[in-house]
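Thread: adenosine-5'-diphosphate complex, take 2
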Amino acid sequence: MFSISFDATILSSPIEFLKGVGPLRADMLKKELGIFTFKDILDHFPLRHIDKTKVNPISSVTPASDYVQVAGTVTNSVLMGENRGRRLVATIKDSSGEMELVWFQGINWIQKSLQVGQTYLVYGKAGFFNGMPQITHPEMEVFTPEKSGGKAFLEPVYPSTEKLKAKSLGGRQIGKLTFSLLSSLKESDLPENLPASFLQHYGFPSRFNAYQQIHFPSSDKQYRQAINRLKFEELFIAQLRLGLIRLERHRYSKGVIFSQVGELFNSFYHHHLPFELTGAQKRVLKEIRQDMGQGRQMNRLLQGDVGSGKTMVALLSMLLAADNGFQSCLMAPTEILANQHFQGISSLLSEMPLKVALLTGSTRAAGRRKILAALANGDIHLLIGTHALLEDKVQFNNLGLAIIDEQHRFGVEQRARLWKKAAIPPHILVMTATPIPRTLAMTAYGDLDYSIIDELPPGRQPITTVHRYEYARATVMDFIRSEIDKGRQAYIIFPLIEESEKLDLENLMRGYENVKAFFPEPKYWISMVHGKQAPEVKETNMQRFVSHDTQIMVSTTVIEVGVNVPNASVMVIESAEKFGLSQLHQLRGRVGRGAEKSFCILLTGTQITNEARERLKTMCATNDGFVIAEKDLELRGPGDIEGTRQSGMLNFKLADIVQDKHLLDAAKQVAQTIIEADPTLQSEENKRLKNFLQAQKGKLAWSKIS
Ligand code: ADP
Ligand code: MG
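Output below.
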């Protein structure tokens, strides 16, 4: 079908064939930098460029300087220190002053090549040591005056490793290899892959040109245009891929058809629904219904901030399944949460002819046997539970819909295990209250369909959040007392410091005693819940808080997800600086669930890092989970965001989905437009894209073999 193959081009040649490389250096490049082919070295982009014409006088280097370039003559070099402190220190001098150059690695080689009396052009990050400016591991070359003055000369600085430097493959040598490769290429070796109309519309340089300019720019402006184009290309190709994968899944994955809205759904909706659905709930429900009625498997991510009412959407979807003769299941990450869903849903369905069951790790053997039998013969319509649902012994009669609540605790693999529980894979709805920034969702979950509940049920008051220091503890306790005296309840949460469970427990116990001193029995009662308790103990304590037998819940983060006690109006988070943003937001979501005004108090010591301070500030400033998620992404970078770690879709070479959001937006939009208009990329205009995607596929396989 594809007549053009790019596999034969020069750029797919193994790196050992590049002039100046050879088998030994090729091995090093592969191992150290993952450079296997000519193309790979072109994709090894410079970190920055040095303007070789700008030389700073040494005396102008201050502690505030960042990267500097000086030209100085070496006056001496000495070996100092021992073992790990062993270093080579050279002094250089220009007409304005002196500075030191320091090496900890490659000492022997550098000592041999460094010539006292020679003048070098020296570049690196400036530091100060004992009042003397110095550069550690500088970039150096013999100074030739003709390079300074005149037109800007932007030399690329490439990332390299100490091992490579020792084998004469430092940044400068990589630059030389890249330069000679680029000089030998023709325009057709780096054929354009973007439609001509894009280039025109965005004013992008050609692909060939962009590669030249990103490595060896003739000006700042050309460099910026080149990097923009290549970033866009990267994002756009990824979006196009994801879009095509999704399209394919839509086309070929068979799914059970829920064709009708029947008696069960309707009678519940009209007679038992305790409240009017919000507009967002209705919209999402419609999206789900459409999805499940089409004969292809639904794979949908439902995002809704804490308290936005995802459970009702889940329940109504399960009723649709039942109306169409299918079983469904709802899986929660903790027993507490599974229990709570079971109780809530059972009571909502108490007048409906449906059988609901609960299966968790602590379901007793006899009960379990009964449930498994009833499940297999179809007597149970809705199964609610924990991971226990995933066990092989749990066999359904005809599972049609599987819902996963609070998705970030479940991996992709677990999702896949649910698929296998029916001949035709069940529809999957993944619900998460950890808002994922839109940019991330677009890249990490681009192959899933995606719904958002972006509206809270009416009557909610925003939670007031404040940051208080340890020394104000007594005031905080007084405040809790005043809320309790009004009939409300409070949570006090302690962090888990994973290194030592024992310490955590001690910490929690001390906290508990402390709270007890402020709130003595019998006027006040306190529940305590933590991960080391037996499930029954946990459950009893939880239950006492739910039924308002206790006014205070002291706990670790086990209550983080899902727990619903609308009467609770205060959330105190101890050592709040130890929590991540999304966790703080989750915890805060435990209050503000009823009609009463709620408060969240973040307690910390006075010694906290700037980043922690930034998190606390964000929490105090907004209740919007999506804003918080964006901030989280900004503070931590995409690699660390919950649930996206393994996605592999975030490893862009050039683009950064936070900083290049505008490019990502544009790329996503253009990709969508193209897929809608020309899903098989047949048009003359899109042929380049098709060829490129096809060639890329081949190449991926190739580089794995070598
Ligand atoms: P989450 O999305 O965090 O799982 P829940 O489903 O637990 O939220 O809902 C939070 C609370 O809001 C529950 O008490 C629920 O009964 C209530 N609720 C849900 N939808 C509505 C609505 N449309 N109107 C009023 N209250 C609602
Ligand atoms: Mg929930």
